[in-house]
Amino acid sequence: MVSSPERGRHDWQAQGKVGVIVRIIAGKLSGREIKSPKGFATHPMSEKLRGALFNSLGDVANLRVLDAYSGSGALSFEALSRGADWAQLIDKDFGAVQVAKANAKSLDLEKKTKITKANCASWSDNNPGEKFDLVLCDPPYDKLNLETISKLSKHLNPNGLMVLSFTGRESVPTVNGVVVVDTREYGDAALAFYRQATQ
Predict the structure, then answer these.
(1) Structural domains in the chain, sorted by start
(2) What is the pLDDT of residues 14-42, one digit of tens each?
């Protein structure tokens, strides 16, 4: 994610637990700052790409959101700021989960989120009945596991939409169980949009 200019020191930064400070782009929390995890264990989406994603999605009011590889939670918090109803965040990195929880608390979104430390594939196996209107997948580009992405697609409601970020240098990933309905390229980054395959 792209940092907004830093205004003084933040406690968690001083402790070495977080990286750059980013901001919510639009909605009721527009302009609010959130922290991002320090280091390279997570793959933060740039502010430009996050803005393009939500411009493409349009109205997200009242949606249930699954945020896989959630990192700081920026995608979930952006969705909630724009009117989404509730979000499940999943990340296997302990530091990312702690930062996301701190962000949810600072934004007063603790009742609108559930933040879980887990491997995405394991979480899917353990929660087969969980369904969502919007599934957001922002995995590290060098660790794209299409089997896991396919598992996550099974959590879509019948009319739900899944979005996968991937490097624009690669072809659009084929994911079992869903079909590509749109793609968008933004330089070195790209987004693929999927819906359930019709029977």
Answers:
(1) 11-196 (3.40.50.150)
(2) 344 556 788 999 999 999 999 988 754 45
